[in-house]
Amino acid sequence: MQKLKHEPAYYETTKFKWRQRIGFGISDYACNLAYLLANTYLLFYYTNCAGLAAGAVGFMFVVTKFIDAFTDYMVGAMIDRTDTKMGRYRPWMLYGAPVLAVGMVLLFSVPTGWSAGAKLAWAYVTYVIFSFGYTLVNIPMAPIVSSLSPSATERTKISTTRTVFSNLGSLTSSLFVLPMVYFFSGSKDATGAALATGYRNTNIVLGIIVIVIMAICVFSIVEINPPTQSAGKSSLIKDIGNLVKNKYYIMFLGEVFFLFLGYLGMYGAMQYYYTYIVGDVSGMSLALTLLTLLAIPTMVLAAYLNGKGIAKIKLIQFGAIVDVIGYLILFFTSNGTVATASLGLIGLGFGFRSSMFFSMMPDIFDYTEWQVGRNLGGTQNAIQGFVNKLSSAAASAIVSALLVWGNYDAAKLDEAISKGVDIATNFSQTHTAINFAFGGLSLISTILAIVVLLPYDLDKKYPQIRADLDKRQNKN
Fold it and tell me: Which chain positions lie within coiled-coil regions (predicted)?
């Protein structure tokens, strides 16, 4: 059982609150470094450096999710039953970080001299290790927000700080990953084994950064508002039955799937788009910078507006509409300048969406506890994490399938570019596949993300729910 070291008044000070916000926020900086590395660069690495077939890789992304389904639930259930001097959630974040870092390195260390079958087996095993490490670190990060503060307003500020740092992680990735890869490769024009070495060494550096940041996070924050109810003995069937009773959680899972399907599909196709459609991969850094940097002011604005009484659901839907406009432009253009500007607009919309997305999660977890009398935050976030990973796998699989449909051949395309051949004219089907993967998939997914949250009205009910939970806590 965790014991607080200070008097209650200390935990109400502005200094402590900012320590909680920033200390927790940096955790998603580390997570996003790992997350975007896998979702932005891994498919390109597999096809262009490791020499794996796009179809086989897409199938691998889907198959490994069945393993994730088991590990995610087991970790979530174990978290709900954890009770240590460090609290319920922090130990998982601390000890999971080295596993995640090792997984990052192994992902981008496919032995290029091996046979195709052996390389694919390496991809399967190392992707499972990476996913398990991400599970250990990430699943506690949503339910811990409820433990960091009992105040809904303060939780929104904590969640907003998290999303700001998350985007700073994305910004770091956009500004430094490719330059680091080229530095370790020895040349911007490096290909094959040399480029593969660049990716591996980049991940070694970033893996160390992830471990250090997670350690700082864990020892900076305090779980001052532990769950009011112990999870106790239960079963998978009973837990799932309790979660199904929460209609808002079901809507939220739909939102998770479509939100990340569109966003990660765009990320997965981006390097192909700027390499073969725009013809200048260096333009990708500016695009990623705008996408991540412009989201930060709208994250802060969303938190401010929510504090002024505007419902979270209205802010997340507004951001989605802005994104729809950006994806529409993206879908109908092959111009690099227009595409980059569109990504900036998408970043503005995504700032509203991501800030309120993370702020909604503690409310939904509290609703489950209010309904069934048991805190299942770890299990809920485990299932949400699995849906997120399933969405990521679906995005990669769809992009891979589009590449297969488009007869994608990296060697032929690289040769054509070196000879000045027009890709749009001479590889029209490949051109169409990449363009649709980059914009079309995201457009459809964002529209569906708007639809699944139309019945959501928890914002109106939450104040009374929180009051009831506080009464229960005071009786304990």
Answer: none
In a domain, 246, yes or no: yes
Q: How many domains does the chain have?
A: 1
The rounded distance, in Å, linking the Cα atoms of 110 and 259 is: 30
Phi-psi region of 373 (alpha: psi -120 to 50; beta: other; left: phi over 0): left
Range of the domain at 311: 25-227+236-475
Question: What pLDDT is recorded for position 231?
Answer: 45
- Euclidean distance between CA atoms 354 and 298, whole angstroms: 10
Category of 430 on φ-ψ map: left (φ > 0), alpha (ψ -120 to 50) or beta? alpha
The DSSP code sequence of 162-221 is HHHHHHHHHHHIIIIIHHHHHHHHTSTT--HHHHHHHHHHHHHHHHHHHHHHHHHHHTT-
What single-letter DSSP state applies at residue 13?
A: S
Residue 294 belongs to domain with CATH number: 1.20.1250.20
Tell me if residue 87 falls in helix, strand or coil.
strand
User: How many CA atoms within 13 Å lie on the side-chain side of 167?
Assistant: 26
Q: Are 148 and 158 in contact (CB under 8 A)?
A: yes
Residue 6 falls inside a structural domain: no
Q: What is the pLDDT of residues 223-259, one digit of tens each?
A: 988 765 454 555 666 777 778 888 999 999 999 999 9
Q: Is 409 a domain residue? A: yes
